[in-house]
Amino acid sequence: MLASTAINADTFESMLMPGPVIDAHKKYEQDCDQCHDTSDKQKQGQLCVQCHAHENILDDLSKKTGFHGRLPKQSRDDCKHCHTEHEGRDAKIVLLTPSTFNHQKTDFALKGTHKKTSCDACHKKDKKYSEAPGDCYSCHKKADAHDGKQGEKCGDCHKSTSWNDSGFDHDKTDFKLKGAHEKTSCNACHINKKYKDTPKACINCHQVNDVHRGGYGKKCETCHNSNKWKETRFDHNKKTDFPLYGRHKKAACNSCHVAGATKKELPTKCYGCHKNDDSHKGRYGKKCNDCHVSSSWDKKKFDHNKKTDFPLRGKHSKTACNLCHKGELYKGKSTSKDKLKSKCVACHKKDDVHKGKQGKKCDSCHNEKGWHSNVLFDHDLSSFPLIGMHAATQCEECHLSAEYGKTEDECNSCHSEDDVHKTRLGTDCETCHTPNSWQTWLFDHDKTTSFKIDGAHESLGCYDCHKSESDGTLRASKDCIFCHRNRDVHDRQFGRQCGHCHDTDSFKDAIIRRQ
To answer: In this predicted structure, what is the pLDDT of residue 499?
Structure first.
């Protein structure tokens, strides 16, 4: 009875069935409860999902992923909204048109070149659409230039626009790409497509670029940056005890840091590097910075006026150091200076046209502007003051040579040709004449000599007594007999002192003085 009832029931449901199901469902065609819950129509969608659990539809719906998980709520709960059954064995209940399908509603949104790729390039024939792989490697294994050495996560480095358009963020590694590294191709560092354990030290990649040939060690980043090799960042002023000033700023590193000498401490004294530039040949010691500055050897900072007791003026200010400092400036200890003599004649002995006859005090007449510039000599402080016509006379008229000391200061030595007396009055011209003029003369015989001119002597001329030439100072006799011998009627019987009896008025008048 029960069996008969079941048969009747199946027949009844079959009679109510709208039409045959698709060929894949025909085995369930007589079991309506497999797909329909007559007590609650809302559960019909759940029956579909349970039957198709192997297709991960349930996971998509619960996680809201995949195509089904992104459908509107009504479509998610009611499968027949899209998949209509009972329309025949060959009916297509998957309503999907590839040309109009919105792929963005799936887990694999189409981007870049995928937008232009044909569907069958990924969705193979006789395969369900959902079975198409979602990872890059499944489709692009043959295009893998790394031969699988970088794994199968192509999306970690590449973008869908192009294989060459890398999306790998190298900054998230322990080697951030900066400067020229940003534009460097991957295989320039990752040799043979080896990405693991790639060396990070500069020298490992740039050893061939090391112009120092390893002489400065392997820490390239100490001096260089990632922009350019020639663009250095090493701050010599802050990181060393030798700040770079002047021409040192422009000097090439290897001019001081000789390759291979990194373990040796470089000299910080000028002489350590510039010994070969020393035009003084070591005579001035090794403290170059006492005189020179780092901007140029020719530019000197030594202040001779302040630091020595010999200020440089006039031509001395333009004189080369080695013209005076010919020997070693330092002897023995560096603090023991070989002090140069500061007297003019010490340097200018060869220039002395006076041949030493004027002494060694050149500065009493000359100055530093030049031997012939404003020669100052106070002749009045000498043994021959210049008075009268002598003051207007050129030096060369008396000083016939530069040996001024040999010049005679006697009048007759210069004026012998002007002596109208022909030395009969001696050679002491200044006794009578003044430097103003030969015609101006002053001589008082009574005061200047011990022979008073009076009486008959007043009418006599000089030559009446001074008749013969002299060879120097005039020495005329005061004895009367010297001039009047031929008029001595006594024949010297009364001696030579005529003045005892006679006066100067006349010999005829005699005065006998008794003792």
So the answer is: 82
Residue 309 forms part of a structural domain = no
| pLDDT for residue 10 | 54
In this prediction, residue 1 carries a pLDDT of 34
**What's the alpha-carbon Rg for the chain, to the nearest Å?**
67
Instruction: State whether 18 and 122 are in the same domain.
Output: yes
Q: Looking at residue 262, what is its pLDDT?
A: 58
> b or e along 324-339 (b: 16 or more beta carbons within 10 Å of the residue's beta carbon)?
eeeeebbeeeeeeeee
Cβ burial of 110 (10 Å; 0-12, 13-18, 19+) is middle
Strand duo 296-300 + 292-293: pairing? antiparallel
Domain count of the fold of the chain: 3
* 68 touches 61 (CB < 8 A): yes
| 479-499: burial string, b at 16+ Cβ within 10 Å, e else | ebeebeeeeeeeeeeeeeebe
Task: Report pLDDT digits (tens) over 51-82.
Answer: 887 778 888 888 888 888 888 887 777 888 88
Distance CA 513, CA 498 (A): 12
Separation of alpha carbons 147 and 140, rounded Å? 11
Cα diameter, the chain: 230
Domain end position, chosen among 130, 162, 183: 130
Strands 433-434 and 292-293: unpaired
Q: Domain range holding 241?
A: 200-260
- Helix, strand, or coil here: 456? helix
Within 10 Å of residue 59's Cβ, how many Cβ atoms?
14
One-letter amino acid of 492? R
Do 126 and 209 belong together in one domain?
no
- C-alpha 74/C-alpha 77 separation (Å) is 5
Q: Are 469 and 412 in contact (CB under 8 A)?
A: no
Residue 79: is it exposed, middle or buried by C-beta count within 10 angstroms (0-12/13-18/19+)? Answer: buried
Residues 120, 127: Cα–Cα separation, whole Å: 10
Same domain assignment for residues 19 and 111: yes
The pair of three-digit structure tokens given for residue 100, joined into one six-digit string: 């109009």
Report pLDDT for 401.
80
The per-residue pLDDT for 334 is: 41
What's the token pair of residue 492?
A: 């010297």
Q: Which helix (H) or strand (E) holds 347?
A: helix 344-348
- Residues of the chain below pLDDT 70: 1-14, 259-263, 330-339, 513-515
Is residue 355 within 8 Å of 402, Cβ to Cβ?
yes
Domain end among 374, 409, 444? 409
Asked if the structure places residue 298 within a domain, the reply is: no
**In the prediction, which pLDDT does 288 show?**
86
The encoded tokens of residue 501 equal 């009896």
Residue 265 lies in a domain: no
205: three-class secondary structure by DSSP: helix
Enclosing H/E stretch for 346: helix 344-348
Angle at 462 between CA 461 and CA 465, to 5 degrees: 100
| pLDDT confidence of residue 335 | 41
User: pTM for the full model?
Assistant: 0.42
Confirm whether 299 is domain-assigned.
no
DSSP conformation letters of 250-299: TS-HHHHS-TT-TTSPPP-SHHHHHGGG-TTTTTT-S-GGGTEETTEEEE
- Residues 32 and 123 occupy one common structural domain: yes
